[in-house]
Amino acid sequence: MMMSSSGGITNVHSPVEVVRRYLDSLPQEIPFKEEVRSFHFWKSVRSEFLATLVIVLLGCGACVHWTPLDNKNNGANEVVEELKVALAFGVAVGTMVQCMGHISGAHANPAVSVAMLVTRNISVLRASLYIVAQCLGATAGAAILYGLTPPSLRHGLGVTQLHSRVHPSQAFGVEFMSTLVVVLTVMANVDPQRADMGFKALSIGLAYTGGHLFGFRSTGASMNPARSLGPAVVMNSWKNHWVYWVGPILGGIIGGFTYEYTQDSSRGPQHFKRSFRRRRDINQQLKRDSHSGLSSHDTELASNDCRV
């Protein structure tokens, strides 16, 4: 306390107390209305739409057979087709991560968005709109591919289908495990506590390539519900479509939890992280707070938590 010039008593807090009060006044998450009004939020949603569109267009485009298969070398032809599709999807994903990762995280996959949601790296609103944008982008990409492909070559058009000798339960396991590896790779690359050990976009793209090499012949190697949805809508093919939603989504959830609780490099106690935090520019804020009574705050998206 101190005496004011008018003879009254004025409460004066120490600098430490002022900082403590300021930090205590900060809510941990951006309110719903504030997030919806954010330009960056809608820019991120548009980025997810575009990234998924490009991945489906390039990846499924590699599935189109432009030349008839040679029966004499059928095995060799299948290997070439498998490698072509695996590389196309891996390169497409890696490219989009490099181009869009700093904007939205470049999930381009509902399984990745759900994994980020359950580990509280993104909000429910962001995850929901990301998934909607991804599904619309995949459908748009498949529709563009349909229009660019000659009618005689449109059969299949990248629709994911089970091998005739693969049971749906086995297909579920393949999609589950492939997606789990993909999500583990994504989570490792967005971990802010992890030392930078290489090219993030390349490692994520290679995770998809590996998944394709593992599961392409048995299930078509979706690992991405939106990637399967787009061609299914355009070609009206829905046989065993549930496998490509349930398997990747559950694989993503388990992959997210697995990294969060077994591989998280944080030295502190393991805990769920939030992705939306208040900017803690204390010096600037304290000056303004002296006039506003701690009532005004700036917000930003913490890039370490949810961007690649």
Note down, in words, how this protein is organized.
It is a single chain. This protein is elongated. The chain has a single domain, classed as Glycerol uptake facilitator protein. The protein is built from twelve helices and four strands, in the order ββααααααααααβαβα. About 60% of the residues lie in helices and about 5% in strands. InterPro entries: Aquaporin-like, Aquaporin_transptr, MIP, MIP_CS. It comes from Strigamia maritima.
pLDDT averaged over residues = 80
End-to-end Cα distance: 50 Å
Number of domains: 1
Q: What would you call the structural class? A: mainly alpha
**Strand proportion:** under 5%
Would you identify the regions where 5 or more consecutive residues have pLDDT less than 50? 267-308
Main beta sheet: 2 strands, antiparallel
Short key terms for the protein model shown above:
308 residues; mainly alpha; Glycerol uptake facilitator protein; two-stranded antiparallel ribbon; 12 helices; elongated; disordered C terminus; MIP_CS; Aquaporin; transport
What is the topology?
Elements: E1 2-3, E2 9-10, H1 15-24, H2 32-36, H3 39-61, H4 74-100, H5 110-118, H6 124-148, H7 168-190, H8 200-219, H9 225-235, H10 243-263, E3 276-278, H11 282-292, E4 299-301, H12 303-306
Antiparallel strand pairs: 1-2, 3-4
Helix pairs in contact: 3-4, 3-6, 3-9, 4-8, 5-6, 5-7, 5-10, 6-9, 7-8, 7-10, 9-10
Short précis:
This protein has 308 residues and is mainly alpha-helical.
